[in-house]
Amino acid sequence: MIRSFLTVSSGTLASRLLGFARDSIIAALLGAGAVADAFLVAFQMVNVVRRLLTEGALNAALIPAWLRVRETEGAAAAAAFAGRVLGTISAALIVASVLIGLLMPLVIAALAPGFIGRETLEIAVNNARLMLPYLAFAGPVTVMMGLLNAQARFALTAFSPLLFNVALIAVMAMLLVWRGDAAHAALVVAATVGVAGLLQLSILVLRGGRAATPLCISFDKDMRGFLGKAIPGMIASSAPQWLMVAGAVIASASPSAVSWLYFANRLVELPLGIVGVAMGAVLIPEMTRALHSGDRSAIARTESRGLELAVGLALPATLGLVVLSDPIVRILFEHGAFAAHDATATAHALSWLALGLPAHVLVKALSPAFFAREDTSTPLLGAVAAIVVAIIAAFLLRHSFGTRGIAAGITLGAWSNALYLIRKGGATFGFSIDTEARDRLPRICLAALAMGALLWLMQELTPVAAGSRGLAQAVLLFVVIFAGITSYGLFLKLFGVIGWREAVAAIRQNRAA
């Protein structure tokens, strides 16, 4: 499992790093004004669909169902089942794209009510309509990624999303050279989103298309049952993105607040993507196989290793983002039309959003225990409750604390989701954590806190927090981050969590398996 996790995490890390480059160019092109707010609301809608469908969410229903059909009826029946899923979802999303396009003014007004009566609404509608073709391509991309994950072919699904960011970066780089109008640049980038989706679909179909044959559309009893389980699971798996949508609903009433929250959240999504996407892609198949075998020790081992990986990566990332929020934001985004006061507001939002990262990752680690049991309703209820909490808290806190209050509301929503799953899981089937996890988890937390304290000390003693953002400052920030990562590894070894030889042995063991 560790090797599979590292494969998915490596691909996700590469995609997120390219995403940083993409968002840095977006900030330079559009700044944080009305055009940027409009574009980012539209782009956030696409991102929700993208995460809802492609980044492990469909695994919640597709993988257990596909494995069950293959084990009981054979490979041909599993391929036919996958073909029905592929055809049905693709057709449904094409129809949905057309309907959403027609109703786009109402959709944007619901997502950003603060835009009503302003020119920003029309700009957002135009951008969103140009992005809509991506929705149709996301359907088959979804199914192909889920099928490849079910067959433990993680490398292709992990690295194919890079094409999305590569296409956008290439187009935006040309726009930067041409120095055109911001509104026109936004429209060009919006149109490129659909092309980027087509590129990702092409590579997946070329390499894994035989896993879903014959292709057909069906709404029979079995397909309705599958979709009834898939849709709640897909919504629940995208809880972090829905919480950001909830925040944007409140932030749309304040100029530039949507942009500040978006760019701050992009930094939170780096560690969340590395851990969260890998959890969805790796833990669900592992948990499903353990449950089918009835091996309680395998169930406990899978849950324990997942929780250790989640805490071990999310906690140090949280502390690092909180301590270094200001220099990170300034170096990445304070360019072109993105001004210094935009960077300050984004850094403040980042400090609060980062506090919700452990909760998001806990949800990603806990949800597979429900999904593998084909229970998608419990995570869905947790996600819906979290959205309600986030909207109420953000609305109340915005009046006193502005964008920071909205970010704090999103964080409260994330923690309410995590606590709900912990309570329901313990009451329903009980979480099986082995002795090794009980021994290592406190020491992992201690190592992360020690790393956080060291980062804070380095930040205070070096000019990394200074207002400058040149190459020297970027190199210094990289050195501080690298020192923090290295120190965390040393603290893990010092506290006896795991040694380097044990880590290498675990990866080799998983390769052999």
Number of strands: 0
Counted by DSSP, the helix tally is 22
- Rg result: 22 Å
Overall 3D shape: globular
Structural class based on helices, strands and sheet pairing: mainly alpha
Largest sheet: none
- Mean of residue pLDDT? 81
Name the beta content range.
under 5%
Q: What sequence of helices (H) and strands (E) makes up the elements? A: HHHHHHHHHHHHHHHHHHHHHH
Helical content class: over 70%
The rounded distance between the terminal residues' Cα atoms is 9 Å
Could you characterize what this model shows?
Helix 6 runs parallel beside helix 10 (about 180-210), helix 14 (about 295-325) runs parallel beside helix 20 (about 435-460) and helix 16 (about 340-355) packs parallel to helix 19. It is globular and about 60 Å long. With about 525 residues, the protein is an all-alpha fold. Helices cover about 85% and strands about 0% of the residues. Mean pLDDT is about 80; it is low at about 500-513. The chain has one domain (about 1-435).
Summary of the model, kept short:
The protein is mostly helical and 513 residues long. The protein has helices at 2-30, 34-53, 59-73, 75-102, 104-111, 119-131, 133-150, 154-159, 162-178, 182-208, 221-237, 239-251, 257-293, 296-323, 325-333, 340-354, 357-371, 377-401, 403-428, 435-461, 471-494, 500-512.
